[in-house]
Specification:
By secondary structure, this protein is mainly alpha-helical. The chain is built from 17 helices and no strands.
């Protein structure tokens, strides 16, 4: 490339113009070629985002680099989950529950022949038989798919246990962070933490866990949340029981981790205070307990109100007809919400608002030799506080939100009266048959169910 005229005038002492060969990149200028080389040809394992892969043809729809042969060796990749996910990281799914499903009542089944003919002729409408056939075909395809793509035993186990394992992992991560922050505060006499700091640790610990597992299990990590979603949003009851078991196991795992990591600090503070280990300040960090001056009714309704606010906010964040936050922000908002609830309502009782949060570490403390009195103190607080108060408060909060705001048919609040009555009696009848309880009343329940169909 030759010097410009201005450059030549500025260098009049130079007799000859020096020719510098121009270096062209294969796809344009050198700068553009360098940029393309960094973006298109090299893999970027970035913690920021996947947008650095722009220009690379080997990308899937999520903008993630995908090797041409990757799917040949990982056939399960990209299949996705056809079922709904009740996730705290995204809007809650809209489903049709049995109480609202067409055909639940006799008048639903009184369709005239013209309507049936119209449905069969309209290609946009599928009959119930066609829908069932499509569902059966999908189940068969899923079963066929389940038998393929497992390269070892563990991948097959994980395929069937992925959701409960994600729930266990999320609970373990969230509660390990929260318990360790609380132990750090109590065992250091406030030198390595404070109450606002431990409240933030609990909130953002759950935020991290929701981001980690929200796309797989939903990131409930709280039996009260799973039960409320089962009652008011159609979360399957059988899956709800599995989630609760995984959450309790995760809480026990987190309690074990926290106790092991802070064992030396617990022993040190007990020796410095000249009290037994089970009477040291560490007990208040592992378990929740009302203050000695707090009346039992006050303790109960503190947990009740806190759980009601938590569940009401979760349903609001998951309601796409309300004002849900932007993509990826729900977990962040929930982290702030949990922090604020513990700061505002946690002083009286220790800020549980989660059945698993208290039960898991309490069981670990029992195994660590702290004594069975942990399950008898304050009139067996662990039963009527973290379990009764939190679950009833969560159900009440969900009920109030649905009464005041929610309009979806998946909530029993919006059932027609006959459907609601029939759904309650049918559920009671099925439960009694499964458990073998009250056999004398089964006949009465069957008769009452039939009466609602007449």
């Amino acid at each position: 490339m030759a010097f410009s005229e201005g450059q030549q005038n500025g260098n009049r002492g130079v007799k000859d113009t020096v020719q510098i060969p121009e270096k062209e990149a294969p796809n344009g200028t050198e700068e553009a070629g360098s940029r393309n080389e960094g973006l298109g040809n090299n893999l970027s394992f970035s913690l920021a985002n996947s947008s650095a892969q722009n220009g690379n043809p080997n990308k899937n729809q999520n903008d993630t680099y995908l090797d041409d042969e990757y799917q040949d060796y990982n056939p399960q990749y990209g299949q996705g989950n056809d079922g709904p996910t009740w996730s705290l990281a995204q809007p809650l799914p809209h489903i049709v529950r049995p109480g609202m499903r067409h055909g639940a009542l006799p008048e639903d089944r009184k369709e005239n022949a013209e309507d049936l003919k119209r449905r069969s002729e309209d290609p946009s409408q599928k009959s119930a038989a066609q829908k069932q056939q499509v569902a059966d075909t999908r189940v068969k395809q899923n079963k066929d798919t389940d038998q393929e793509g497992f390269f070892n035993t563990w991948t097959k186990i994980r395929h069937y246990l992925r959701e409960p394992m994600a729930e266990w992992l999320g609970t373990t991560v969230a509660m390990t962070i929260g318990l360790c922050a609380t132990l750090s505060n109590f065992t250091s006499n406030g030198q390595a933490g404070s109450y606002p700091a431990q409240s933030a640790a609990w909130g953002f610990g759950f935020m991290v866990a929701i981001y980690t597992t929200g796309g797989i299990s939903g990131g409930h990590m709280n039996p009260a949340i799973s039960i409320s979603l089962s009652v008011f949003r159609g979360f399957p009851a059988r899956k709800c029981l599995i989630y609760i078991a995984a959450q309790l196991l995760g809480a026990i795992t987190a309690g074990g981790f926290a106790y092991a990591l802070y064992h030396d600090a617990i022993v040190e503070i007990a020796a410095a205070s000249k009290v037994p280990q089970n009477a040291s300040a560490a007990m208040s960090a592992l378990i929740t307990m009302p203050k000695s001056f707090v009346h039992p009714a006050t303790a109960f309704f503190t947990e009740f109100v806190g759980s009601a606010i938590l569940i009401g906010a979760i349903l609001a964040l998951g309601d796409d007809t309300n004002a849900p936050p932007g993509a990826g922000m729900q977990a962040f908002v929930l982290g702030i919400l949990i922090t604020v609830i513990i700061l505002a309502l946690g002083y009286n009782t220790g800020g549980c608002f989660n059945c698993a949060r208290d039960f898991g570490p309490r069981l670990v403390a029992l195994m660590a030799g702290w004594g069975g009195h942990l399950f008898r103190e304050y009139h067996a607080w662990w039963v009527w506080g973290p379990w009764c108060a939190d679950i009833s408060g969560a159900l009440f909060g969900a009920l109030i939100y649905d009464i005041a705001i929610f309009t979806g048919g998946e909530s029993p609040v919006n059932y027609p009266p006959r459907r609601r009555k029939r759904a309650v009696r049918a559920r009671s009848l099925n439960l009694r048959k499964k458990l073998g309880l009250g056999k004398r009343r089964i006949g009465d329940l069957e008769r009452s169910v039939r009466e609602t169909e007449e």
